[in-house]
């Protein structure tokens, strides 16, 4: 059964084009496209994705410039449309995706730093989670009958 109109996002974090990880990304992309999926790719090294959380993640002045609190400031920036352009672009990809694939090598039993930074910056408070609506709203909404 082919479901028309599905979109996948592959978030890829490996700098070497001859790596097994790159081959896995290419195989996943080809298999999905063969099934008529639209495939978006965020190649973090190719994009030179900034993995560092900072005041630069919001545009304009912070609400509390003398005591910058990253979580609170990015929540307000998300609500007001003042997140950095690269974050907003990646969040739009996540919103379009029916499936998100993370392809990366293990570094010390975890994500590479660039992938961790992508997760921290893109899955920001308000966009990806909140105290009351973690799975009832937003990109992680559970679409099963209750």
UniProtKB/TrEMBL annotation:
<dbReference type="GO" id="GO:0005829">
    <property type="term" value="C:cytosol"/>
</dbReference>
<protein>
    <recommendedName>
        <fullName>Flavodoxin-like fold domain-containing protein</fullName>
    </recommendedName>
</protein>
<dbReference type="InterPro" id="IPR051545">
    <property type="entry name" value="NAD(P)H_dehydrogenase_qn"/>
</dbReference>
<keyword id="KW-0560">Oxidoreductase</keyword>
<feature type="domain" description="Flavodoxin-like fold">
    <location>
        <begin position="8"/>
        <end position="131"/>
    </location>
</feature>
<dbReference type="InterPro" id="IPR003680">
    <property type="entry name" value="Flavodoxin_fold"/>
</dbReference>
<comment type="similarity">
    <text>Belongs to the NAD(P)H dehydrogenase (quinone) family.</text>
</comment>
<dbReference type="Pfam" id="PF02525">
    <property type="entry name" value="Flavodoxin_2"/>
</dbReference>
<dbReference type="GO" id="GO:0003955">
    <property type="term" value="F:NAD(P)H dehydrogenase (quinone) activity"/>
</dbReference>
<dbReference type="InterPro" id="IPR029039">
    <property type="entry name" value="Flavoprotein-like_sf"/>
</dbReference>
